[in-house]
Every structure is written in structure tokens, then in C-alpha cells.
Amino acid sequence: MKKRHLLRCMAIALLVGQTALLMLLVSCNDDDTMPATEPIDKTEIFVERLTVLLNDMTTLFDGATFGERKGEYPVSSKKLLEDHITSLSETLAKVREGTKKLSNSDMDNVILETKKIEARFRSSVRSEDFAPIPAELNIYGKNGGYIDFGIHNEYSNFGNSGEQEFTVDFWVKLTDVDHVLSSFVFLISTFTDKDFGDGEHDRKGWNINLHMGNLRATYAMGIQDLLEPGAGFNIVDQWVHIALVTNEKGVDGETNGNKPVMMKMYVNGNLKLSETSNQDASKPYRSNDLNVPMVAFTGMSVESTVEGSKSTNGCLKHFHIWNKAKTQSEIQNIMNNPETVTGTESDMVCGWDLSKTVSDDSDIKDLTGKFSAKLIGDCRWVQ
Q1: Alpha carbon 211 to chain centroid, angstroms
Q2: Which partner for 314 in 114, 126, 174, 223 could form a disulfide, CB atoms 3.0-4.6 Å apart?
Q3: Are residues 102 and 191 in the same domain?
Q4: Phi-psi category of 137—alpha, beta or left, where left has phi over 0 and alpha has psi -120 to 50?
Q5: pTM greater than 0.70 (yes/no)
């Protein structure tokens, strides 16, 4: 009897197991045949949200005043808002036309980024009027710092080919003894050199540099040739005034061996060097028309990338470019009375004071009001 009862229980258990398995299979089959849930298209919702964000940012921008007074915003903050408005506009246009799809998390990130930029912009408002303070502008070129004066043809083009004349003058304090005495580094440069690797070059512009203990000027002559006059120089850790005067027809009307004296270099108002061109008339000075900025304490490649090996450390102030070959007495007057240079002079191309702090390191207006410089990398105002 017990054995028969046990067999009956086993049969019932087997039957129940088979029934459960059958129900599971039917259930799975039903799930497979159920239609998939269609994703919700949130394009219209996202367009609406992006439009609100764009309108809010545009209203904030339109209502802001940029300047140096209390309640105004720095010019660098202007660019912050402009860039984000442009980004929002582009995203909105792509979402509308269907070329860009946003997920919920994408939209959340856009909203979060917009709130961060808005907060950053609002916090930059000036709490008081800006007052410049006398200071030295230290440029740490060896650590990636330099001054970018922008891209302007006027910095290197001064008239008809073969007849160009200009003057560059500035105060500089060099702080790296090794670079002054045993390296090749740039102080001010509009110069580029495209090296084709087979002895052929495409050179443009001018620069003032230090080369193995010499203060030197470099001119692109013709297409690939150079004029590089230089003289001994070892002044370190003190301010020195340098002036480079150029006139392809002859500085001060002077000639040497029936060739015009193309350049004169002055240090602290004293004539250091004069030089005729080493090229014939078919290879005049060649200005730079590339999309490359004029820079200080470094050099630039033709691709507008920094040439770090030519970077150095130092301070700069009272930097000017003139479209006239200045006389020695004029140079001495500029050197001794830099505060009298106003930017209204008829022969001034550009000029920066750089002897006091500025309200915005990314927008340093020149004396003429036509140009703007910016500090890149490791640059510090030291009082």
C-alpha cells in the first residue's frame, strides 16, 4: 500500500511539472508576439526647451554692458556668452531639421551647461570701477606664456615692395641668462619660415631675436633668403630700450658702397649697428600675409602654432610700431618720454603701454584703439 501511494504521488508531481512548463512556454510565446512599444518622439519638446534657453541667454547678453565701470562686465565675459549662444543656436537648428537627435540625458546636459555659464557670467560683473596699478608684465615663455597681438597685415607691410620703411621700439627686461648668452629665442616676431626640407624655404616678415649672445634682426628677403644683422648683447635683469629702424631706400638717407643702409639698431638710444642689404634689388624685404599673429617672447609656425624652442622669459612695456624710419633723436625722445606717446600720432601703426595692470588680459586695447592683444599661458602682473 505504501509503495502504491508513493508511485501515485510521483505521477501527480510529474503531471503538475509538465503543466507548469507548458504554461511557461505559452507565456513566452505570447510575449514574443506582443508589439514593441514605440519610443516617444520628443523633438518638439526639446525644440521648445532649447528655444527658451536661447532666448534667455540672448536677453541676458542684450541687457549687459561691457567695460571697466562698476556694474559692467569684462569683455572676456562677453565672448563666454557669445560662444554659448552660438552653440545653442547651432544645436537648435540641427534638432529642428532632424540632423541631430537628443536623448533625455543630452537635453539635461545642455540645460546644466547653460545654467553654469549663466552663473559664471553673472558672477563676473564688476563690483567697483577698474583702476590700473603700476606693475611689470612678466611673460614666462619657457612655461608656455606669450603675448598675442592678433593677426594684422599692418604689422609687417609698410608700403610698396622695395620701398618699405618702419620702426619698432620697446622696453624689455630679460630674465633668463642662458637664453641671452647661449640660445636662439624671439623677442618680437611677425616672421614665419616654411621649410620644405630640401633646402628650399618660404620666408615672410621680420623679427627681433637673441642669437648666441647677439641681439639680432631677421628679415625675410625675396622668397627664401634672409638678412640677419646682429651685435653683441648681454644685458640681463634690467630694463633696456631697443629700437629697430628699417628703410629700404636708406635709413637717414645713408648709403654704404653705393647700397642703401637698410637698417639701424639702437640700444638705450645709442646706435648699436647699421647694415646694408646683403641681397640685390630683386630680393627686397618680404612682408607676411599669412594668417599668423604677431607675438612676443616666442615664435610662430606657418600653421600658427607656437615654436616653443624659440620662447624665452622676460618683461615688456612701451611697445610701438611706426610706419616711418625714425631718427636717433626721435627714438631718444620716445625712450625718455614714453608717456607722451598717445596713439594719435600720424605715423603710429600700433602701440601698447603695458606698464600697468589692465581690466581684461584677453582684450588689451592698443593706444590707437584699432588693435587688441591678449596674454596666453603663463603671464603675470607683478606689482
Answers
A1: 26
A2: 174
A3: no
A4: beta
A5: yes
